[in-house]
Design goal:
The structure is a single chain. Strands 16, 17, 18, 19, 20, 21, 22, 23, 24 and 25 form a ten-stranded antiparallel beta sheet that branches. Strands 15, 26, 27, 28, 29, 30 and 31 form a seven-stranded antiparallel beta sheet that branches. Strands 1-2-3 form a three-stranded antiparallel beta sheet, with no helix packed on it. The longest helix has 21 residues, at about 315-335. The protein has four domains: about 55-110 and about 230-245 and about 285-355, no CATH class; about 120-220, no CATH class; about 375-385 and about 545-680, Jelly Rolls; about 390-540, Sandwich (Jelly Rolls). It is built from eleven helices and 31 strands.
């Protein structure tokens, strides 16, 4: 479902439909199995009145119109009941695996990688066979004897494929492993032959034969290597340089944090994933066919280079592409315009605003929302989180390490001292560097502003003080890099405020994806909880969580946390925020963006953590309006909220002020709200 620590943004989670789906999976798959996941997904789809599920059906034919510039209909077959269906539609979105639907429609496209123009004889003459196996553990020893009909030996496989399996087994014995057989012999082994030949090697001749005595093959899943993946040709072909350079597009409708794959032409399994410097944007021009005017793409078969196609196959990225393509198709039908028209200036702005109002991220920066009325309001809050509240967090020792990176937001004009709590193993020296965020991506450490060191003098838990006395030129993320010749532990605060966190060396976190831009990463967490942070005091104190953050245009962390946080509370009395206007305004809609915890990772396979919802989500709240005569009225009360984005619609009314009263969360002892927008 996802890749752990695959980007340089610790607040990486997608908002919108992907967040809704993963929340539903936690609710509907409490057994944490693949069958439970399939059931939960089917339950979700069947609650949508405008979706008809036709699982197991196969598209046989796509029929164009007389001009051959639009799809008129498609024919699908139900093999189980031996019947055909003819589907007609104004627009079609190709979500098929490998663009099979587009190929049936004879859509212009390409296969392979056109950048590889130089012939490579050794690659062309290689034949591949692949299979996915799941290894499980038994209570008893299970010897294995290779069947006589297996006529291959794993040792005769390509070196890269053998090495890839060894690395996979070293990470974990039980679980899923991808097996790949590559040779010049066109008579490649079947998936079952490959599986049992590999198992014979593991159980009887490998370095794992002792530790694998109780292991067995639980499942064999056939893979079909797609050596010539089809990709449509749109008005723009998304290129590798667009991803690496972080190019922005006026018609961007989706954002991806997927790594890029350094493709090995000989071996799929040994191709390395490399973290990009920043998220990348996906333009609408890459999601439709210029020739077939009513066809859009949602998948890795969109208009892109082969290396980019692998990145677009990232499931969270697919969720954003699918939402964008579907919404574009609906807007085309309503406005009676083509996707190409909607991608142009004068039209794309409206489409992007509509998607953003659905909590769908269209670009790295939020488009200007000129209709939001809260930007002219004065904002007040019951309480505001202070730096001293960090000292009240529950504490736990962090990872044992000789280096780490402490990240924190800075809003002051200077940094004089930084004080934090660490556990030293001995009388040791700790060196510190103060770093600002880089210009390209503020989440990556940039220039060094100053250095200092501290001699502990004794082992044990103690406060460490570093003196910098540095002028700060810009607000944003800053980092304290700590190094020592001996191990130490940062004392961490549990459920940190957004923006405070600790990063550790990637190898200590067990992260295999290469990252040339940073040697640190946040430890992978699969539960919907906030990050952990250092117990830290910065002089002068910072003001990062003011109520005015709610009228900014961000609904997630950018170069600052960008949200209001209350002081710790048991909600015996509600926390609240108020919006006051100098002159009465007329509103009919309010959008509230709560904090869904952007820093945890979706598990790579079905599991259940015990937490149904992100604990930072506001659970119960009320909305009050005050009219121009000064009379307050309760206009809405929400109980058991489960969404990070709530839309409230009213009959148009004229008000002088508005109050949002927060009664409880799903577990966090404070209120956190990113953005509140109001519309006429």
């Amino acid at each position: 479902i996802d890749y752990a620590s695959s980007c340089n943004d610790p607040f990486f989670r997608e908002s919108g439909i992907f967040e809704e789906i993963t929340t539903n999976l936690r609710l509907g798959n409490k057994e944490g199995t693949f069958t439970g996941q399939a059931r939960a997904l089917l339950n979700l789809v069947k609650t949508e009145p405008n979706i008809t599920t036709m699982l197991g059906y196969q598209c046989l034919e796509v029929t164009p119109n007389s001009s051959e510039d639009r799809i008129d209909s498609c024919t699908i077959i139900d093999h189980l009941n031996s019947c055909k269906f003819l589907h007609r539609a104004e627009y079609f979105v190709d979500c098929s695996n490998g663009g099979e639907f587009s190929k049936l429609a004879n859509v212009p496209g390409e296969s392979g990688n056109p950048a590889n123009t130089e012939p490579r004889k050794t690659v062309q003459n290689l034949f591949k066979s692949e299979v996915l196996i799941e290894i499980a553990r038994s209570q008893n020893n299970l010897p294995f004897q290779c069947p006589d009909w297996i006529n291959i030996r794993w040792e005769n496989n390509l070196h890269l494929s053998r090495l890839s399996l060894m690395k996979s087994l070293e990470q974990q014995l039980c679980g899923f492993h991808r097996l790949e057989w590559i040779s010049e012999d066109s008579n490649s082994p079947t998936p079952h032959e490959l599986c049992w030949a590999t198992w014979d090697f593991i159980k009887n001749r490998s370095n794992f034969k002792e530790v694998s005595q109780r292991l067995f093959i639980k499942r064999i899943i056939t893979l079909h290597p797609n050596q010539s993946l089809f990709r449509g040709i749109g008005d723009y072909i998304l290129k590798e340089e667009d991803l690496v350079q972080g190019n922005s597009f006026e018609d961007s409708v989706a954002v991806s944090r997927a790594p890029i794959r350094a493709i090995n032409p000989c071996s799929t399994s040994s191709s390395k994933q490399i973290v990009l410097p920043d998220s990348f944007e996906i333009p609408l021009r890459s999601l439709y066919s210029p020739k077939i005017k009513n066809l859009l793409w949602a998948g890795s078969h969109a208009s892109c280079e082969a290396v980019v196609s692998a990145s677009l196959a990232h499931p969270p990225t697919l969720s954003l592409i699918g939402s964008a393509a579907g919404h574009c198709a609906a807007r085309c039908i309503i406005d009676k315009r083509l996707p190409r028209t909607l991608s142009k200036s004068g039209h794309i702005e409206k489409l992007r605003r509509e998607l953003e109002k659905k909590n769908h991220r269209t670009g790295k920066l939020l488009p200007h929302d000129e209709n939001n009325l809260t930007t002219t309001a004065r904002v007040y809050a019951s309480t505001i989180w202070q730096d001293k509240n960090l000292l009240e967090l529950m504490r736990e020792p962090g990872m044992e390490t000789d280096a780490c990176l402490v990240q924190f937001p800075v809003t002051s004009a200077r940094i004089d001292t930084i004080k934090l709590l660490i556990d030293c193993h001995a009388n040791q020296r700790v060196d510190a560097r103060l770093l600002e965020g880089s210009a390209q991506n503020p989440h990556i450490q940039g220039s060094c502003l100053g250095t200092d060191s501290f001699d502990s003098g004794k082992p044990g838990e103690q406060w460490v003080i570093f003196h910098f006395n540095k002028v700060i030129k810009k607000n944003g993320w800053y980092f304290l890099e700590l190094r020592s010749n001996q191990n130490f532990k940062i004392i961490e605060g549990v459920h940190a405020p957004v923006g405070h966190l600790v990063q550790y060396p990637r190898k200590k976190c067990g992260i295999s994806i290469d990252n040339p831009y940073s040697e640190y990463s946040v430890a992978t967490a699969f539960t919907p909880h906030p990050h952990r942070c250092a117990i830290i005091e910065i002089e002068p104190s910072q003001k990062s969580y003011d109520a005015s953050e709610m009228i900014a245009e961000n609904s997630r962390p950018t170069n600052l946390p960008g949200l209001w946080i209350s002081q710790p509370s048991q909600f015996s009395y509600p926390e609240f925020v108020e919006f006051h206007w100098s002159n009465p305004i007329t509103i009919s809609r309010i959008d509230i963006f709560f904090d869904p915890s952007f820093g945890y990772c979706t598990p790579p396979k079905p599991s259940f953590s015990g937490d149904e919802y992100a604990i930072s989500l506001v659970k119960n709240y009320r909305i009050y309006f005050t009219n121009k005569d000064g009379k307050a009225k309760l206009v809405d009360e929400i109980k058991e909220n489960t969404s990070a984005h709530q839309v409230h619609l009213f009959d148009a009314c004229t008000i002088k002020s508005m109050e949002i009263e927060i009664l409880s969360t799903h577990g966090l002892d404070r209120a956190q709200v990113f953005r509140v927008a109001a519309y006429e």
